[in-house]
Write a structure and sequence with these properties.
With 239 residues, the chain is mostly helical. The protein has a single domain, classed as CRISPR-associated endonuclease Cas1, C-terminal domain (Four Helix Bundle (Hemerythrin (Met), subunit A), Up-down Bundle). It has eight helices and four strands; from the N terminus they run ααααααββαββα. The strands form two sheets. Strands 1-2 form a two-stranded antiparallel sheet. The chain has a two-stranded antiparallel sheet with strand order 3-4. Helix 2 packs antiparallel against helix 3 and helix 6 packs across helix 7. The radius of gyration is 18 Å and the shape is globular.
Length: 239
């Protein structure tokens, strides 16, 4: 069951990441950025095909990691030049402003997912894609993969592209790159708006806010566990 569920999470993540890149590519015509976005989309589509036959978790994680690196290389080209971003890093705290925003956004998304998992009586520390380790709510990390690109990444791009946050909102200290309180409040407000905003459920075509979409996935996971049948779970790949 673990490999099949992990495969579903990664499939949805890669599909939604490709969707975000393709949408931005359509507005950039024949530019170098458009070509880079297109190549990243092709990389994701190739990875999606490979996922079907990944024999184990390590292989699956390798496909995911390579696709994520390609995604952020292309995604970075959408940012205005003043936002220096050389890739997604795992540093806590972040060493640059973009990663500081992504870290904050992913933390908020993780907390939202974990709360819904706990509300449905599931164990948030039980992981499939992410390794189980003390104190880490791995199941929340698993499930949030489906929603990263269409929620947090889009908000970060929108704020940077439209000047709703600026480099002046950040300071670099010995502890890393820190976002100002005012900018953090603006960012959190935008994330909340995104979580409360509606998307069409790709399986039912019903318009639901993102929190209800996440809750629907949690309920689907609960059904898998009750019946010991991973095929009951389908990741949300938006259109």
């Amino acid at each position: 069951m673990t490999l099949d569920l992990a495969r579903a999470f990664v499939h949805a993540k890669l599909s939604n990441s490709a969707l975000v890149l393709a949408r931005y590519a359509r507005h950039r015509k024949e530019s170098a950025t458009a070509q880079a976005l297109h190549q990243a989309v092709l990389h994701h589509r190739d990875a999606l095909g490979r996922l079907k036959t990944a024999p184990d978790l390590n292989t699956l994680r390798g496909y995911e990691g390579a696709a994520a690196a390609a995604y952020f290389r292309a995604w970075a080209m959408l940012l205005p030049k003043e936002w220096q971003f050389d890739g997604r890093g795992d540093e806590r705290p972040a060493t640059n402003a973009v990663n500081a925003l992504l870290n904050l956004g992913y933390h908020l998304l993780h907390q939202a997912v974990a709360g819904l998992i706990q509300a449905r009586g599931l164990n948030p520390y039980l992981g499939h894609l992410h390794a189980i380790k003390g104190g880490h709510m791995a199941l929340a990390s698993d499930l949030m993969e489906e929603f990263r690109a269409v929620t947090v990444d889009g908000v970060v791009l929108n704020l940077c592209l439209n000047g709703k946050v600026s480099i002046a909102d950040f300071s670099t200290t010995a502890d890393g790159c820190i976002v100002s309180q005012n900018a953090a409040r603006r960012f959190i407000r935008e994330i909340e708006l995104k979580l409360n905003g509606q998307l069409q459920h790709p399986h039912t075509a019903e318009p639901l806010d993102v929190r209800r979409l996440i809750d629907a996935q949690v309920r689907s996971l609960a059904a898998c566990y009750r019946q010991s049948d991973a095929s009951l779970y389908r990741g949300l790949a938006f259109r």
